[in-house]
Amino acid sequence: MKKWLLLVLLAVVGLASWFFLVTKKKPKEEVPKDQPVAVSRYSAAFNASIDSFLNTYYGLSEELVNWDSTAVSATAANMDQIIDKIRWDELKNDTVIYATAASYRDEVKNAVQNLTDATNLMAKRQAFHSLSQNMYDLLRTIKFDGSKIYLQQCPMAFNETEEGLWLSKTEKIRNPYLGLHHPKYKGSMISCGETKDTLHF
Q1: Residues 6+ apart with CB under 8 A from 7
Q2: pLDDT tens digits for 84-107?
Q3: What's the CA gap between 146 and 30, in Å, rounded?
Q4: What angle do CA 103, 109, 112 make, to 5 degrees?
Q5: What is the rounded (10 degree) CA torsion for 76, 81, 87, 88?
Q6: pTM to 2 decimals?
Q7: Edge-to-edge order in the sheet of strand 162-168
Q8: First to last CA, the chain
Q9: Which residues contact 133 (CB under 8 A, 6 or more apart)?
């Protein structure tokens, strides 16, 4: 009799365990929350006009990497036209930002003109350094959020003792001051430099 009761008890416990396991609610799977879509503070047209200027600048940097003086002059002349097409009026909602940006824009235009007028690569690189510094200040002032931009620095751009700055769309260093055809270093110093800042608003 005791064996029969023990068997019944075991069967009941087994059925109860099975029922509990089968009917137990499965935990709800975590559904990833929708990520907010990044919204720029500027219009698509404004961002596109800045991007056009930046892409031309990046091309100019690569021409300096290749020591191509003729291409640098042609690109600089083109940049002068592109900067005038940027929709600066969008900045007028904030008079302080607009005034500061206008000042840097004028410095950028001066540097572009100096690039065009310079008769040798050393002078062009000096103008490029000025252009890069003023572009960085301009983009930081307006908090441009159309793309990530890296500020990079060569510690020996001029006379092997003075720094030179440039902007890049990637973290990879391609030094426009020493480049691929340096009389002393050839292409061995192409990766000389470091990223000093990142603009990513």
Answers
A1: none
A2: 999 999 999 899 999 999 999 999
A3: 32
A4: 145
A5: 70
A6: 0.81
A7: 162-168, 149-158, 194-199
A8: 81
A9: 165
- Dihedral of CA atoms 172, 177, 180, 185 in degrees, nearest 10, equals -110
Q: Which residues neighbour 196 within 8 Å (Cβ) at sequence distance 6 or greater?
A: 151, 152, 153, 165
Report the run of H or E that residue 79 belongs to, with start and end. Answer: helix 69-84
| Three-class secondary structure of residue 163 per DSSP | strand
Domain extents for the chain? 44-199
Res. 14: pLDDT tops 80 = no
- CA dist 8 and 3 (Å) reads 9
d(CA 132, CA 92): 24
- Give the largest Cα separation in the chain, rounded: 113
* Phi, psi dihedrals of residue 85, rounded to the nearest 5°: -90, -5
Residue 153, beta-bridge partner list: 165, 194
The residue assigned the tokens 């990513």 is 200
User: And the tokens for 51?
Assistant: 């991007």
* Number of CB atoms found within 10 A of residue 77's CB: 13
Q: Which amino acid is at 121?
A: L
pLDDT tens per residue, range 122-169:
999 999 999 999 999 999 999 999 999 999 999 999 999 999 999 999
